[in-house]
Design brief:
This protein has 270 residues and is of the alpha/beta class. The protein is built from nine helices and 14 strands. The strands form three sheets. The protein has a six-stranded mixed sheet with strand order 8-7-6-9-11-10. A five-stranded parallel sheet has the order 2-1-12-13-14. Strand 3 and strand 4 form a beta hairpin. The longest helix is centred in the middle third of the chain and has 15 residues. The N and C termini lie close together (12 Å).
């Protein structure tokens, strides 16, 4: 009896906390598993909350030449051609209104923003605590943040933790903008209705692949819509409890080659 074919045509992976280890590298085992899945007929797509400027280095290091979904689904990026295929921006007037309403409820917030474009800067306002060492432009006055198109805002509160801030924001301004938590210290303000699933569905359509043919890997609540869209959602062992609650499967952590563990099992059955 001949083995069954590899069951998915699309492998969608989040980046931080999922594909990347904690030192921001990708293990050789995971690289090899993705190469084997590709050889078996699947396409690998990175789906990340990072905007294109914060994703390009990783894609180039991977030798990744395909389509990537960046900026929480706001950007579909052709890594081989180094160009944006689609880009959705945040209505700055609406975002400003949402921030005013939220600050009236919880008090002053520290802000950062991601400007649109392949070379768009990430702007860091006073008091915002930067996660990691990714390149950014520090501002003395947040007023200049609003002078050019933005993909998203980042918000932090001096006392509320990520879960509490995200919950308060959804309750207060969830009818105006979308709020997602995409990592430790990272609560984002996005255009209403925009999710990773939005960008992934656009990218999949370009590739002629359906949701029913997709397996997705992630670790944070911003991956929930992607899991809802894909046929099979796999949460890392290090994932947030909200994502684990909706996952079809939980694998080992990003430090323990969780993606490779699942792909090797599927390839072994193929």
């Amino acid at each position: 009896m001949s083995p069954a074919p590899f069951p998915y045509k699309l492998v969608a992976t989040d980046l931080d906390g999922t594909l990347l280890r904690d030192d921001h590298t990708i293990s050789e085992r995971t690289r090899e598993a993705l190469v084997a899945a590709t050889a078996a007929g699947a396409v690998h797509i990175i789906v990340t909350g990072r905007g294109v400027p914060w994703t390009r280095r990783v894609l180039d290091d991977l030798g990744y030449r395909g389509i990537a979904v960046c900026g929480q689904g706001s950007q579909v990026y052709d890594a081989g051609a180094h160009r944006l295929l689609t880009s959705v921006t945040l209505d700055r007037q609406l975002a400003g209104l949402a921030l005013s309403k939220l600050e009236a409820e919880v008090g002053p917030l520290a802000l950062a923003a991601s400007r649109d474009g392949v070379d768009g800067d990430v702007l860091i306002g006073p008091g915002y605590r930067v996660q990691g060492s990714l390149p950014a432009v520090h501002l003395d006055d947040t007023a200049t943040m609003w002078s050019a198109p933005l993909n998203k805002l980042y918000i932090q509160h001096p006392e509320l933790d990520d879960d509490a801030l995200a919950a308060a924001a959804r309750q207060t301004v969830g009818s105006l903008v979308d709020i997602v938590m995409s990592g430790p210290g990272i609560v984002e303000v996005l255009p209403l209705g925009l999710t990773k699933a939005t960008g992934l569905s656009l990218a999949a359509r370009r590739l002629g692949v359906k949701a029913a043919e997709t397996i997705a890997f992630g670790d944070m609540p911003n991956d929930i819509p992607m899991f809802g869209w894909a046929a099979h959602g796999v949460a890392m062992a290090n994932a947030h409890a909200e994502l684990k609650a909706v996952a079809d499967e939980i694998t080992t952590s990003n430090e323990e080659d969780g993606i490779a563990v699942v792909l090797e099992r599927l390839l072994g059955a193929a």
